[in-house]
């Protein structure tokens, strides 16, 4: 009896697929072009391809688990611009109709930018915001009763206007959801075609503006996610699971009710896959760098666990759902090199995308990209995916020469400059996720993966002063592999503000949240439940909180975390009281993670497959190695290039790449 699990990560350019045969331990990886017009086509093509590569008579019906990482919800926010659509409406408390307009009264990049910044359109225009009388105080006590007559009129107005997605956020609903539930019942009765999101279900946490926008984002992506998930389920003829931003997975049947939880699906899977790979290799704390075609995503893993945040955003929309703390920078293989009005060379954040893509793709692209610079310098082969996608090196050269002429540089200096700027853009993202979080970047090795992730490893080691970098096997498929390493996970939160916590009250809230988690895990078919309690605390008078584990001496943990993050704390100062703000529970249904196989040891010197001209410090004939030919203990001395199906590792002069027992390449500066 086969026990086969498949992970499918749909990206902008390629759909990555990984199959794990739990009976034999075999891992099969592949890629197939993505199909943006209908992502389900690329998904199904990838699954069929990996099953064919595996062989052994396994078909889709015998696959025990199918896990999907998708950017459908994210793309809806970033590309379809829901603020300009006519399907989204908002219902809030009477007198608070301008909450979206007032927002946080803050200007990006400081108030010095006030003269130049133009406020973007809000997610729902003012004419589609309606209010309903009724008021609760911050404890959840009713101040004014809910008006069902007014609620009915509002529901009928949205029905008559054809508004089919509605977000509901009433003042202090985190303390008492009663009025929101009454509004939901009215909408179900008067406007049954509408998709409705209520804030007490999406984010039961205080801060009205963030809770409102998070609820509206959930409502905005629900229709497209339901259509996509429904279409995919019908074509598959079976169930599957979807990766969530918090580092867990959820069944497709459940995720359609909370689609906002999937907005960072792919990057979260990559961070978790890298964490398992690095942990197996004896590196439980690492920086992860996921380099793609459009952007690079970086995260930090500490003791095997990724850092989490609830202060994330998607585009310009704050989304206070629990998610892995990921910083994204527009520095991918498709990032465009351009000349600023001042005449200086810039790279990104604009990308050539998958269509037309870099010049070397031969699909009509006319703008030089990071990939074109790598091709011109000989650091990537003249083809991708083992020859499936040929590259036009002559076109890349012509593009680089044209840009270099405008800058008054040699083509080599222009191409090297493009890569140098891209490396510094990536290093700045890494500093944001480490230095700005109170971490010393030099304490962490880096795991570089994704199709373009390994290409700038050597420069990043120099720029950041890192001791080493790890490039996993099949780096372009680490995100898809990560989908097979994660547990089912749901997060629940309750605002409970106090400077004098009553242990019985705290315990009662935690038990209530755990009961909700248990109900969801039981629906998912889990009998073994794990609960993780955390709490958000702050010093009285502060505006934002620090999250710490809610076991043992919670306030002592807070003092320590605050000291680490901000460089000061008030552990022994009674003038600064500690205020509890939010209580959280993560309900986890654990799975069996795939085991990574060891590589056979290699005693002889590795043998290159060929040579070609590559530019590092200058043009030189350089040895090329095929990664699958290397065994454990093999050492490659730079200058050299190590190629594989989905990615390439240029080893600069003065660096070495050593393969460990699990097939990872560890890149270091040569001693002496």
Task: Describe the structure concisely for a colleague.
Pfam families: Hydant_A_C, Hydant_A_N, Hydantoinase_A. This protein is an alpha+beta fold. It is 30% helix and 27% strand.
Low-confidence stretches: 79-84
What is the count of β-strands?
Answer: 37
Assign the CATH topology of the domain at 81-220.
Answer: Rossmann fold
Provide the CATH top-level class of the domain at 81-220: Alpha Beta
CATH architecture of the domain at 81-220: 3-Layer(aba) Sandwich
Content-based structural category:
alpha+beta
Number of helices: 16
What is the terminal separation in angstroms?
54 Å
Main beta sheet strand tally, sense and closure: 9 strands, mixed
- Percent of residues in β-strands: 25-35%
Categorize the overall geometry.
Answer: globular
The overall pLDDT, averaged over residues, is 89
Helix fraction, binned, reads: 25-40%
**Rg from C-alpha positions?**
26 Å
């Amino acid at each position: 009896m086969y026990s086969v699990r498949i992970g499918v990560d749909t990206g902008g350019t390629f759909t990555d697929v990984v199959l794990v045969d739990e009976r034999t331990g075999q891992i099969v990886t592949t890629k197939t072009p993505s199909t943006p017009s209908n992502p389900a086509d690329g998904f199904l093509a990838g699954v069929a391809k990996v099953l064919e590569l595996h062989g052994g008579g396994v078909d889709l019906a015998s696959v025990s688990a199918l896990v999907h990482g998708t950017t459908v919800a994210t793309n809806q926010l970033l590309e379809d611009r829901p603020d300009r659509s006519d399907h989204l409406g908002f219902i809030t408390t009477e007198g608070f109709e301008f909450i979206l307009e007032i927002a946080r009264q803050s200007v990006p990049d400081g108030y010095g930018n006030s003269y130049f910044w133009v406020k973007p359109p809000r997610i729902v225009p003012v004419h589609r915001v309606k209010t309903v009388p009724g008021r609760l105080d911050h404890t959840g006590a009713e101040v004014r009763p809910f008006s069902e007559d007014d609620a009915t009129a509002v529901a009928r107005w949205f029905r008559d206007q054809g508004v089919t997605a509605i977000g509901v956020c009433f003042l202090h609903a985190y303390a008492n959801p009663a009025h929101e539930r009454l509004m939901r019942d009215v909408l179900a009765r008067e406007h049954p075609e509408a998709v409705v999101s209520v804030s007490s279900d999406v984010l039961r946490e205080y801060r009205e503006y963030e809770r409102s926008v998070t609820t509206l984002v959930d409502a905005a992506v629900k229709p497209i996610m339901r259509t996509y998930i429904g279409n995919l389920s019908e074509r598959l003829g079976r169930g599957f699971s979807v990766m969530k931003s918090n580092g867990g997975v959820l069944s497709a049947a459940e995720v359609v009710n909370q689609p906002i939880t999937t907005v960072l699906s792919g990057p979260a899977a990559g961070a978790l896959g890298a964490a398992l790979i690095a942990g197996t290799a004896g590196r439980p704390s690492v920086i992860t760098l996921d380099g793609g075609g459009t952007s690079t995503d970086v995260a930090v893993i500490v003791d095997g666990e990724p850092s989490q945040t609830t202060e994330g955003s998607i585009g310009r929309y704050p989304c206070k759902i629990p998610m892995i703390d990921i910083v994204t920078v527009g520095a991918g293989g498709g990032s465009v090199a351009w000349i600023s009005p001042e005449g200086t060379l810039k790279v990104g954040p604009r990308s050539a995308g998958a269509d037309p893509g870099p010049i070397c793709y031969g699909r009509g692209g006319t703008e030089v990209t990071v990939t074109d610079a790598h091709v011109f310098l000989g650091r990537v082969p003249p083809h991708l995916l083992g020859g499936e996608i040929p590259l036009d090196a002559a076109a890349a050269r012509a593009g680089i020469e044209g840009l270099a002429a405008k800058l008054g540089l040699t083509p080599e200096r222009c191409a090297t400059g493009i890569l140098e700027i891209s490396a510094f853009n990536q290093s700045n993202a890494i500093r944001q996720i480490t230095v700005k979080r109170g971490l010393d970047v030099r304490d962490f090795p880096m795991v570089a993966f994704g199709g373009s992730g390994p290409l700038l490893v050597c420069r990043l080691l120099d720029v950041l002063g890192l001791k080493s970098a790890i490039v996993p096997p099949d780096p372009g498929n680490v995100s898809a592999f990560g989908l097979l390493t994660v547990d089912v996970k749901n997060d629940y939160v309750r605002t409970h503000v106090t400077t004098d916590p009553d242990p019985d009250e705290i315990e009662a809230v935690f038990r209530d949240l755990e009961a909700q988690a248990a109900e969801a895990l039981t629906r998912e078919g889990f009998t073994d439940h794990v609960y993780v309690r955390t709490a958000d605390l702050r010093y009285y008078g502060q505006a934002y909180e620090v999250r710490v584990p809610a076991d043992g001496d919670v306030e002592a943990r807070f003092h320590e975390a605050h000291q680490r993050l901000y460089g000061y704390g008030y552990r022994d100062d009674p003038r600064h009281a500690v205020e509890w703000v939010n209580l959280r529970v993560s309900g986890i249904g654990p799975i069996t993670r795939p085991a990574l196989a060891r590589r056979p040891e290699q005693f002889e010197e590795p043998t290159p497959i060929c040579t070609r001209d590559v530019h590092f410090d200058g043009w030189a004939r350089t040895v090329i190695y095929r990664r699958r030919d290397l065994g454990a203990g093999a050492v490659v001395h730079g200058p050299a290039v190590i190629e594989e199906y989905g990615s390439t590792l240029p080893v600069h002069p003065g660096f070495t790449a050593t393969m460990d027992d699990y097939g990872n390449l560890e890149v270091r500066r040569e001693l002496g």
